[in-house]
Write a structure and sequence with these properties.
The complex is a heterodimer of chains A (536) and B (220).
Chain A (H helix, E strand, L loop, with lengths): L18 H5 L4 H29 L16 H37 L7 H20 L16 H4 L4 H28 L12 H33 L12 H35 L6 H14 L15 H29 L8 H24 L1 H7 L3 H31 L5 H28 L13 H31 L41
Helix pairs in contact in A: 2-3, 2-4, 2-15, 3-6, 3-7, 3-8, 3-13, 4-6, 6-7, 7-8, 7-9, 8-9, 8-10, 8-11, 8-13, 9-10, 10-11, 11-13, 11-14, 13-14, 14-15
Chain B lengths: L20 H36 L1 H9 L3 H26 L3 H32 L9 H4 L6 H35 L8 H26 L2
The chains are: A mainly alpha (536), B mainly alpha (220).
The structure holds protoporphyrin IX containing FE and copper (II) ion.
The site of copper (II) ion has 4 residues of chain A, from helix 8.
Chain lengths: 536, 220
């Protein structure tokens, strides 16, 4: 299955020249890079908002000078809404599938491209259009509903709900198109010999995610359309004043948004599987179990949305059922965890920067997962609902989980994407700062939540001050970490030394072609004769 | 597509990342079906909403249905079923290289779509005229509803038929595009994937109407 680029020098980056050739490209690798640039930009915007929020919370509003960074609670709510919406819809949901998935899924299975290259490009444009619409609202009438757009507040508040919601709708289309493309690519474009059970686990993860995207997003789409119609024409479906049911909105919303949290995390698990096996130099333990547990998580995730609504007034029976089913998600997740740990066990582990992020993922995701089980326990959630405990929990999962994997994946595949090596020292520094800063920021929030500090408030009583200070300082450490990361990437692209074809001595297919890969991915179509992780 | 077709088809239409026309055809068709799944789910969600509220306010839904003219809905149902038929035969004409017949069939399909939309337009304007608007826009002074929340019924009516109507318009646009390409001679016995794709879309849109019609016009 070894192939090498015959014509040296021709690769997907210099295959065609000029900005226009990028904006009209149908090459999945280029589209992956375009997503990378745009998502990084949105991450910067959302990150600045996060820093502002934390700065506001550095001290209670009674304190001189530092107490009032944001003018008042309204402004705080707006910044909070944009931070949440940008991070969810523009960073974490598209993140791994659109960047790393687009770039590596075809390479992983020995295909020349995804099944529908033009639709792939269209989906980037959808993403940009939706994001533009959503962000533009910031310059007209800001929105302050929180990223969940709960009715009836979102119907009553005089802000730009309609435009924002249409933006989210269009980004949803982008997500559906990407998912659809991936499913068909996996089904139809695998190289000779690449059976489903020889696919890398990252591909399995993307495949399960794509199924989720396809099945969950349409429900969000109609919900958002109805919300827009409600705001424009008052159709009455979600508006209690007209006999409608705001809780129905929550049911619909979470029927998408709970699976959406797995749209965010399953790709991350896929990346981590690749990293762990590569840097342990060992065949991954329980390949089939990991592959199918992704599907298992995807399936169960459709039946648990009610755990967001324990205190919404749904029936007690529903609450108990949802609580129970939610626990079941823990089973396939734990299977993965055990398999990763078993892979590490007696492996020859090397601590290169991608691996550090993978180990960081294991640690932080474990905390996020355990606190998730706590929140799934109905009586506990009644106390912790809408406190900082929840904030800490979802940041541990989304940032500690998905973002760590994204960073690890970035470093791991960087040599393949750009044909250059990066500076390992600054890469490790970025990990240390992000990891430490992350815990300093978010661990205190568990305690704050347990003490009863509510979320979405721009002020607090003095008793919460010390922990909030710690948390804010932590956010600066995270900032430092990401600046190191940005530096590493930019310097790597500009000045990095030439990368060998397979710097990590990995076994999957993408490492068998030139770095950066040629326009058509493989000079000769690969023929696959063995599984993806034939170490030893 | 049977395998003996491949020999003739390696040329123009196969994109570079596919091995042959068969592979491209299979992939395209699967893509279209997956997209249809999302359409069905989207309408499915709004049907769930309908079912829930129908359960809570049965009298209100009965009152609302009285204002709809089932005869118009019925005519529209027949029009759409007929258009599904003409759409289907257009594919079989193309498979037999009968371009002219295919053109006529496709044109008829668009025409049916247009008739459907004209009737819709008439229904809508008639409703507006009577003061039957969605939600709080319902003209209570004119309508004197028995049930206080009658506006919600029309919320559902306009949301469901409106969304469906937009799909009909999109379908008409797509079929017009097929029509132009058919006249240009792009499709023939070796290549008809776009026609089949749009056809599937059109059938699904019809199918959705076949659910909407009894739910809105007849259940009461
Ligand atoms: C990296 C440093 C980050 C910091 C310091 C930070 C800080 C905050 C703060 C202070 C809040 C408001 C909590 C409340 O009052 O309820 C918040 C909310 C939120 N954050 Fe972050 N955040 C960070 C990163 C992220 C990332 C990467 C994501 C992406 C997934 C994210 C997603 C969210 C969401 C979804 C909300 C909830 C918004 C809402 O309740 O409407 N955050 N964050
Ligand atoms: Cu959930």
């Amino acid at each position: 299955m070894a192939t090498n680029s015959a014509h040296h020098g021709d690769n997907y980056i210099n295959h065609e020249k000029g900005l226009w050739s990028w904006l009209t490209t149908v090459d999945h690798k280029r589209i992956g890079l375009m997503y990378m640039i745009t998502v990084m930009f949105f991450f910067l915007v959302g990150g600045i908002m996060a820093l502002l929020l934390r700065l506001e919370l550095f001290a209670p509003n009674t304190a001189a000078n530092v107490g009032q960074v944001l003018k008042n609670g309204d402004v705080y709510n707006q910044v909070l809404t944009y931070h949440g919406a940008i991070m969810v819809f523009m960073v974490i949901v598209p993140g791994i599938p659109a960047i790393l998935g687009n770039f590596f899924l075809p390479l992983h299975i020995g295909a020349k491209d995804v099944a529908f290259p033009k639709i792939n490009l269209a989906s980037w444009y959808c993403f940009m259009a939706g994001a533009a619409l959503a962000i533009l609202t910031f310059f007209f009438k800001k929105i302050d509903t929180g990223w969940t757009f709960y009715t009836p507040y979102s119907i009553r508040t005089g802000t730009a709900t309609v435009m924002m919601v249409l933006g989210a709708f269009i980004m949803g289309m982008s997500s559906v198109l990407t998912g659809l493309n991936f499913i068909v690519t996996v089904h139809k474009l695998r190289a000779p010999g690449m059976t489903m059970h020889r696919m890398p686990l990252f591909v399995w993860a993307l495949y399960s995610t794509a199924i989720l995207q396809l099945l969950a997003t349409p429900v969000l789409a109609i919900t958002l359309l109805l919300l827009a119609a409600e705001k424009l024409f008052g159709v009455g479906i979600f508006d209690p004043a007209l006999g409608g049911d705001p809780v129905l909105f929550q049911h619909f919303f979470w029927f998408y948004s709970h699976p959406a949290v797995y749209i965010m995390i399953i790709p991350a698990m896929g990346v981590v599987s690749e990293l762990i096996t590569t840097f342990s130099r060992k065949v991954i333990f329980g390949y089939t179990a990991i592959a199918y547990s992704s599907l298992g998580i995807a399936a169960v995730s459709f039946f648990v949305w009610g755990h967001h609504m324990f205190v919404s007034g749904q029936s007690a029976t529903a609450g108990i059922l949802f609580s129970f089913i939610t626990m079941l998600v823990g089973v396939p997740t734990a299977i993965k965890m055990f398999n990763w740990v078993a892979t590490l066990y007696k492996g020859s582990v090397s601590f290169d920067s991608p691996m550090l992020f993978a180990l960081g993922f294991l640690f932080l995701f474990a905390i996020g997962g355990v606190t998730g089980i706590m929140l799934a326990t109905l009586p506990i959630d009644v106390h912790f609902h809408d406190t900082y405990f929840v904030v800490a929990h979802f940041h541990y999962v989304m940032v500690g989980g998905t973002l760590m994997a994204l960073m690890g994946g970035f470093y791991y595949w960087f040599p393949k994407m750009f044909g250059k090596m990066f500076n390992e020292t600054t890469a490790r520094l970025s990990f240390v700062f992000i990891f430490v800063g992350f815990n300093v920021t978010f661990f205190p929030q568990f305690i704050l939540g347990a003490m009863g500090m509510p979320r979405r408030y721009f002020d607090y009583i003095p008793a919460y001050e010390t922990l909030n200070k710690v948390s804010t300082v932590g956010s600066w450490l995270i900032l430092t970490g990401f600046l190191f990361g940005l530096w590493t990437i930019v310097q790597g692209i500009r000045k990095g030394e030439k990368a060998p074809m397979n710097p990590w001595r990995s076994k999957t297919l993408e490492w068998q072609t030139a770095s950066p890969p040629p326009h058509d991915n493989f000079a000769v179509e690969p023929i696959v004769t063995a599984g993806p992780y034939e170490y030893r | 597509m049977s395998t003996d077709n491949i020999k003739h088809t390696h040329s123009a239409h196969v994109s570079h990342h596919f091995k042959d026309a068969n592979q491209e055809y299979d992939a395209g068709k699967q893509g279209i079906w997956l997209f249809m799944v999302t359409e069905i789910l989207m309408f499915g969600a709004i049907l769930v909403g309908y079912a829930i509220f129908h359960n809570i306010y049965p009298e209100m839904f009965a009152e609302g249905a009285k204002y709809l003219d089932w005869r118009l809905g019925f005519v529209n149902t027949l029009v759409l079923i007929f258009s599904s038929f003409t759409m289907a035969i257009s594919i079989s004409f193309i498979q037999k290289n009968q371009t002219k017949n295919a053109t006529i069939a496709l044109a008829t399909t668009v025409l049916c779509g247009a008739i459907f939309m004209c009737i819709k337009y008439y229904e809508y304007t008639h409703k507006f005229h009577m003061g039957l608007f969605p939600g709080h826009l319902l003209d209570i002074a004119k309508v004197h509803p028995e049930h206080a929340n009658l506006g919600m019924y029309f919320g559902f009516y306009f949301a469901m038929t409106g969304l469906h109507g937009i799909h009909v318009l999109i379908g008409m646009g797509l079929i017009t595009w097929l029509l132009i390409r058919t006249i240009r001679g792009d499709f023939h016995s070796q290549y008809w994937l776009p026609v089949e794709g749009v056809g599937i879309f059109w059938h699904i849109v019809d199918l959705i109407w076949i659910f909407l019609f009894p739910l809105l016009y007849l259940v009461g």
